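hi! just following up on the protien thing from before. the input was this:
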Amino acid sequence: MLHKLDPYTTYIDPETKKKFEQDVKGNFTGIGIQIRKDANTDQLLVVTPIKGSPAYKAGLQAGDLITHIIREKDSDDKPLPDGEKEVETKGLSLTKAVKMILGTKGSDVTLRVIRDGKDKPFEVTIQRGKVFVESVVGPTRKADDSWEWMIDPKSKIAYIRLTNFAEYSAQDMENAVKEIVGQGVKGLILDLRNNPGGRLDAAIKITDLFIDDGLIVRIKPRVGREARYSGRSQGSQLGFPMVCLINGNSASGSEILSAALQDHDRAVIMGERSYGKGTVQNIQDYEEGEIKLTTASFWRPNGKNINKYAAEKDFKAAGVNDPNQWGISPDKEIKITAKDREDLFEAQRNAEIIEPKDKRGKLTKSDFKDKQLDAAVKFLRGQIEMASRVPGAGGE
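and the predicted 3d structure came back as:
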């Protein structure tokens, strides 16, 4: 039914719908751990607890092995027969394990855990609750597991990575920026690499934080009048140079933000060309799932459409082929290999892991050299050095 429409109009099955809702909302009800199957034991391995979650407060740690899931009721809060109350995780699929650990707010689940350094397994009973997923992250964590934003403390260069545009992303970004301004930030790296987008309102609010007044984005619907979203001077953070990192997986909201930063000359865009998704989807319930239907396109402040597929169609109709008319072209292109992309994804994932205090730097040790990030730091150091030589710009 949807085959002849654009690539972003699609049906979302019930399981994918739940994951999609979690990503957009930035929160869910559960205990708050990332897990995967351990290759050696086939049991559940705790990749990391989520900061502030019930699992984090209960003391679960990265590297813990969950051998058994013990509960009185199922995920719908219905009583379980005795034979199903305790389930071994060996041989249990990851999907089933996640469903068993999730449940209603206020209900309990008990996990039997093996931890390196402990003589025997122990049990942890956790009350399920609201879990807020971090979408605004820094380069490293402090001793209390909050984010250390300064990637170069000497030069006062901060680094903030936005993983997606969720419900609380704009507020979290504002809090992070207030913190670095209070620390005397002189340069900021905003990392949007591998950010697939999310909520339009979050993208607009975050863009407004970094630009003065002026157009942020235009939304053109299939039918009806276009909507224009503009920034306000009040609350804008303009007192430091910025680099915005993007790559081929920076899409949608990431492109709204990076395009506005580029068109307003607020940031130097570095990395690779963005994905080229310049469309807006309206979500409608359909049986147990949803249909994402493309209803509009968004256009950057300079008047160009970001969408790759629309641009290609226009080029063919006009008999031209201009590769600079879709997506976001970086001001400074820094090419990387396929291996670099894989290593970047792993490094970003590892940066979010909350390591046990006695294993800091051991679980996520990597030799990955981030060439794009290194170039951004080098560029900002140069900008800060130049500014220090200008009379009245803070230099001596």
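The chain has two domains: 29-131, 136-383.
The first helix runs from residue 14 to 25.
cheers
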